[in-house]
Amino acid sequence: MKRLRQLVGVKCKIVVSIDAPKVGGPKLDFGPLKLMYESQVQFLQNEENLGTANHIISQISDQFKTWDNVIVIEDDISVDKASVDTLIEILKFRLPEDVLTIGLFGSIPGKLISYVSKSYWRKTRYFSAWGWAIQREDWPLFKLDIKEEISQLKYSQSWQSLNEREKIIFQYRFEKVIQTPALTWDYQMMFCGLLHDKKHLLPLFRCCDNEGFGDLRAVNTKTPRPKWYIGSRGIAKRGFGLRLIPSWAAAIFEFLDKLTWAGSSFLLLELLKLKSRMFKSSHAFKRRFSE
Question: Is 225 left (phi over 0), alpha (psi -120 to 50) or beta?
């Protein structure tokens, strides 16, 4: 319901796809929601339980039979209509050839976007599953089962550019994916980008948020919200065209991505934790002073 309230009215078709319950689980009744949103939203529910990865991937493949672009927003990802409309505006044109996906997660707290007149984007090697889109031409590159392709990773320039610690971290993740390919799909998208030397477009400022931290049902967000992850999302300001920041500036933000998705810098992690503690202490002091 929260996602529908945020997204109803976006300038594209909205499809709500629900996996079938596991054996013995109750089936959902979409009746009231269909009456409320029948002119704007299509509701689907699988006949049998596919699991998270197979459900998402099969639904994307089905939608590409009709549409040229697909935006994926899971139920625990908070985002606003204006930011999704910005994605839609960009997706009217072919993304750069070296880009695999475009997403809504930025390194800088989104509230700061109010000081910038237009949205800016950057290229990074790191895939974010927190609200993202892919185009029909690139979808065939993605494979849920990467077992047959893992040996080709060594020929990738993107893979060779990772530091040794990152290689160990991602190699471990990819080997787990090979053993259980149906449990995840986001690591496979990261693998796809590395294998094909493709980048991901992310905004300079955060336009989405993950509300699933601390949920034991989650795969990657079972733990509490990271201490260094401060600030909240903002709204992407629309404009004309895809404005990319210079590559040297994008490299700085990619360094933060490296921490977020690979945790490859212990020193930077400790500095960000310290910054977070100082941020929280400052706010606590202001509250006491105001009282």
Answer: beta
